Amino acid sequence: IFHEMKKYQTNKSGNITQMSIPLKPNDDGMVGRECPNTDCILKYFQIGQSIPDEFLKNGNNLSDSNITCPYCGHVDHFQKFHSEDHKKWIESMIHRDMAITIQNMLQNTVKGFKSSSNSGFSCSMSFKPGPLPNVRYYTEEKLKRKVICDNCGFQYAVYGISFHCPFCGKGNLQIHLTRNVEITRVLIEESIKLQSEQMDVAQRMIGNALEDVVGIFEGFHKNIYVYGIHHKFSKEDADKKEERIKVTFQRLDGAQKLMLTDLQYDIFSSISNEDRLFLEEQFLKRHVLTHNLGLVDEKYLEKANYYSKQGSELEILPADVSRALEIVTSIVGRTSQHIIIEK
Ligand SMILES: [Zn+2]
Ligand SMILES: [Zn+2]
After folding, report:
1. Which of the ligands is closest to the CA of residue 70?
2. What's the pLDDT at 105?
3. Which end of the chain is more exposed for a tag (fewer CB within 10 A), N or C?
4. Any alpha helices (H) in 195-341, and if so which ranges?
5. Closest CA to 73 of 175, 178, 170, 176
6. Distance (Å) from CA 39 to ligand 1 centroid
7. What is the DSSP letter of 34?
8. CA of residue 343 to ligand 2 center, whole Å
9. For residues 339 and 164, is the Cβ–Cβ distance under 8 A?
10. Residue 237 to residue 230: CA distance in whole angstroms
11. How far is the CA of 70 from the centre of ligand 2 (A)?
């Protein structure tokens, strides 16, 4: 009964026909996959086509193995990770083939119909095939974040950040953290180069770098926390907790309290009190920078450890931003090691 799809048929036993339909990779050589876990939020990711030798050496076959969702860590058989769009595309090809079969059957029936003139009655029949259903257009999404697993070398692409390598399951958040830190370091270095010639541009750049440091702290902790609560609590409870986050992770004490209460982990357990106070000061500066054009306000004076004149311009030093970046990197790295479950 199959026409255009016949070439994909691999096996037939009884009423069951097995087909193996190759998926066309996008320009980056990636093919889309979708996590079958109904609680998974992002679901869609892409995997590369070159399989690490280590895996093939043991006689393994990717299409017959388990893979891991890079977002939620769900482990399941490779064949369960078909995307909804893939399914719709294949269904549309089946519908088209079925329509061809039905039209052919009708055409053959009509051909076999003979009119009789002996009875004094004659008629003729003809069948004009109608338009066939279209095959659904399928294209992979553009995912900007491409990752090469530092454990197995497998290449994949995700929205934003991934917690696991789909192939070996290893926790991969550190790769994203390292890249973010590298970008912020470039900003700091560039601001130093510009200091003598374009002071105002240099100040803006170092301010942006400080905002990045806070962004790394907030963004990574928030995502790790969401991952952690979804592994620990029911979906309903985790969703409620997620709704309450808002900007909590922009504050050091807020982040510490939430992680400690819900995931029993003290994010500051690995740093000295001196580093914690220093970070507090830098976060305070960033607040003034974002909300008061970098001019010292009353709120800053209330909390700051150093005297500044109200209304004066805050001084942001590249060395301070670098130190804050190192401290944040170390904290986030440890938090991710502690919360992310290795697969
Ligand atoms: Zn998932
Ligand atoms: Zn891997």
Report:
1. 1
2. 87
3. N
4. 199-232, 235-243, 252-263, 273-291, 298-303, 318-339
5. 170
6. 7
7. E
8. 10
9. no
10. 9
11. 10
Q: At what angle do helices 273-291 and 199-232 cross, to 10 degrees?
A: 110
Which residues lie near ion ligand 1 (Cβ < 5 Å)?
35, 37, 40, 69, 71-72, 74
Give the tokens for residue 79.
Answer: 């064949």
Relative to the alpha carbon of 171, which ligand is closest? 2
Return the ligand number nearest the Cα of 68: 1
- Confidence band (pLDDT; 50, 70, 90) for 120? low
Residue-range domain boundaries for the chain: 1-171, 174-339
Query: Does residue 114 surpass a pLDDT of 70?
Result: no
Instruction: Name the nearest CA neighbour of 68 among 176, 168, 174.
Output: 168
Ligand 2 centre distance from Cα of residue 203 (Å): 40
**The pairing of beta strand 145-148 with beta strand 75-77:** unpaired
Contact present, 245 and 222 (Cβ < 8 Å):
yes
How many CB atoms neighbour CB 277 within 10 A? 11
What is the share, in percent, of the chain residues with pLDDT greater than 90? 57
Looking up tokens 């061809």, which residue turns up? 100
Q: Tell me how far the alpha carbon of residue 172 lies from the centroid of ligand 1, in angstroms.
A: 15
